[in-house]
Design brief:
This protein is an alpha+beta fold. It is 55% helix and 11% strand. It comes from Cupriavidus pampae.
Length: 188
């Protein structure tokens, strides 16, 4: 049976097409701005991730063509470096240091606790989109490990209890924000 198209679905499709076109334009501008510099691939990937929060899949052929690389070469660099994401991150990015100094003071146990607490594995995002859990290899806090970075804030000497408190604080803040939003919507 053919799909029935409603005005609402037409509007959503048009909006999606416009946003995809805008994203491609933004990608093309970023690539064009850096394509002639020596070693342009990494700066382009960093800029794309800074702007979009991840490296969109549709950027790979644009980058490959502009830099005269194969798509496989571009994809290989994206997947080699843990810093680059191929999908949007959660609202909060939680990075646990996996370097040797932090491992020597309990980072492995902290990773297991983080996975249990958040309900997702490393390199994954929670089902509600609230948290992305990532490994990071040295936050420069070796003397006060295990170290964790949540969004752009460093935390040292993080044990399971402290990790739980940090996450619960973020969850409480998100609940309060949602309650405020709901109250505003109800008053309108």
């Amino acid at each position: 049976m053919p799909e029935t198209v409603t005005p609402t679905s037409n509007l959503a499709a048009a909006s999606s097409t416009v946003s995809a076109a805008r994203r491609l334009d933004a990608i093309a501008q970023i690539v064009a701005a850096s394509r002639d510099m020596p070693g342009a691939l990494l700066p382009i990937l960093h800029e794309l991730q800074d702007v979009h929060g991840y490296v969109p899949a549709e950027s790979v052929p644009v980058i490959a063509q502009a830099l005269n690389l194969s798509r496989a070469e571009v994809h290989g660099v994206i997947t080699f470096y843990h810093h680059f994401r191929e999908h949007p991150a959660g609202r909060h990015v939680v990075q646990v240091c996996r370097a040797e100094a932090c491992q020597s003071v309990g980072a492995d146990a902290l990773v297991k606790h983080a996975e249990r607490t958040l309900g997702c594995s490393m390199h994954d995002t929670t089902a509600d989109g609230a948290f992305t859990l990532e490994p990071v290899f040295c936050l420069g806090q070796c003397a006060i490990g295990p170290a964790v970075m949540i969004d752009d804030r460093l935390h040292g000497r993080v044990d399971a209890a402290r990790f739980t408190r940090l996450i619960e604080g973020l969850r409480d803040a998100m609940r309060a924000e949602q309650n405020n939003k709901n109250a505003v919507e109800a008053s309108v």
